[in-house]
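Task: sequence design from structure.
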């Protein structure tokens, strides 16, 4: 069973944690090998594979923007990254309160925060510059700082993962049934039926055989662009839908689906893994006694 690419994972994470941080899938490498290949910030339940092209997508994106577009793109990314800094600080505080030794994590978060701050300062200087040459130089410095900030997110997320429980294993012997509010990520050879209320879901198809059935045409979101074969942002087919209220069925031999909503009801059969993050309950239906368990509390606040 293939794992969720980190860049895609980060993308899904940001969709949830920062409410659309990557409106067009642009910002991350960012964080979620979405980074070129990217939890949900809460945690990544899947094994992360290193990508040799971590910064190439974002660099290429900037190179294709006009100065005006680049300023707006930087402003949006910096704003979302500042929001991320606040959330990371809360995570650090919480982990410290639990008695964890997080010196290395704290230093990495401080580096991330510093690069974001630098990007903001340089952008402000660019906006206040009367000379075009000065403006271009400050935009360049701001761009470099936000790219460096993004490169810090993968080690941050990897470290945060170590403080969280692993995924639920789904086997052919039983069905996973869950209901709750938050984030659900399922990956494997699965048949998934779910209901969302005012939510969104995203899918990465590793084998090319995923089938999606929806009771209506929900709003499609743009996913990260495909690049040359030697540096794909998302090397597999990906789909994302927003403003979803209704029933959806997804099946395939190798795919990952992430859903985010205040009301999630799902049943899954097959073989794979699942992460349930938020407020809710789940159980494995094998035809015997039902023993309900709680979803994992998110490390990142969703509000």
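Answer:
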């Amino acid at each position: 069973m293939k794992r969720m690419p980190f860049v895609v994972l980060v993308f899904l994470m940001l969709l949830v944690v920062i409410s659309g941080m990557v409106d067009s899938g642009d910002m991350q490498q960012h964080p979620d090998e979405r980074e070129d290949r990217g939890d949900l910030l809460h945690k990544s339940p899947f094994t992360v594979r290193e990508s040799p092209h971590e910064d190439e997508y974002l660099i290429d994106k900037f190179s294709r923007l006009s100065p005006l577009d680049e300023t707006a793109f930087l402003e949006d990314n910096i704003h979302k990254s500042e929001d991320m800094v606040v959330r990371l600080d809360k995570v650090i505080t919480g982990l410290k309160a639990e008695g964890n030794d997080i010196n290395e994590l704290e230093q990495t978060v401080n580096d991330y925060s510093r690069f974001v701050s630098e990007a903001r300062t340089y952008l402000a200087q660019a906006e206040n510059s009367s000379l075009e040459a000065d403006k271009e130089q400050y935009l360049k410095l701001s761009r470099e700082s936000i790219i460096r900030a993004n490169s810090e997110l993968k080690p941050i997320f990897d470290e945060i993962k170590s403080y969280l429980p692993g995924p639920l294993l789904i086997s052919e012997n039983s069905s996973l049934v869950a209901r709750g509010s938050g984030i659900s990520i399922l990956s494997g050879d699965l048949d998934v039926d779910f209901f969302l209320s005012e939510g969104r879901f995203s899918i990465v198809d590793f084998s090319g055989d995923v089938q999606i059935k929806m009771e209506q045409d929900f709003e499609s979101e743009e996913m990260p662009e495909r690049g040359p074969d030697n540096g794909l942002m998302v090397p597999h087919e990906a789909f994302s839908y927003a403003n979803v209220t209704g029933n959806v069925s997804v099946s395939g031999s190798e795919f990952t689906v992430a859903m985010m909503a205040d009301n999630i009801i799902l049943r899954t059969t097959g073989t794979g893994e699942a992460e349930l993050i938020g407020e809710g309950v789940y159980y494995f239906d094998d035809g015997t006694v039902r023993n309900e368990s709680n979803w994992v509390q998110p490390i990142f606040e969703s509000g």
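Strands lie at 168-170, 175-205, 211-214, 219-220, 237-285, 293-294.
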